[in-house]
Design a protein that fits this description.
This protein is mainly alpha-helical and 121 residues long. The protein is built from 6 helices and 2 strands. A two-stranded antiparallel ribbon has the order 1-2. Helix 1 packs across helix 3. The longest helix has 17 residues. The two termini are 31 Å apart.
Length: 121
């Protein structure tokens, strides 16, 4: 299951804060801040989708993520590779390195990462 853009934005805030009350989440937004009801709706949807949960503390709720950012991102990237690059990581890597205007230093860093992974296998 995926998050909408608005839900992803809110999820990113929650991943950074690890746990947060409604006020904390609202404070993290830049002006113009979304309405409290909008955030409440997003939190409800994200809870229903199984991405977050909450603990009741008095009359407030303390929200926390159930899904790790790395896991969500990994699933997203793998879906992208499957759907847009014929399930070929090589095609994805080729597109990524050619179309993202990476500097020579960034390309060399990627090469080091790839070399490290090759040695591990």
């Amino acid at each position: 299951m995926q998050l909408s853009k608005s839900e992803e934005e809110l999820m990113n805030i929650l991943w950074k804060q690890k746990t947060a009350f409604m006020k904390d989440l609202l404070d993290a937004y830049e002006a113009p801040k979304p309405a409290t009801t909008t955030i409440a709706t997003l939190l409800k949807r994200m809870t229903d989708k199984g991405f977050i949960a909450y603990e009741s503390q008095g009359r407030s709720r303390k929200y926390y993520p159930l899904v790790k950012k790395k896991d969500y991102f990994s699933k997203h990237v793998n879906g992208l590779i499957k759907n847009f690059f014929n399930d070929s990581a090589t095609q994805f890597a080729s597109f990524f390195t050619q179309e993202t205007n990476l500097s020579k230093a960034e390309l060399e860093e990627l090469k080091k990462m790839i070399d490290t992974q090759i040695k591990k296998k």
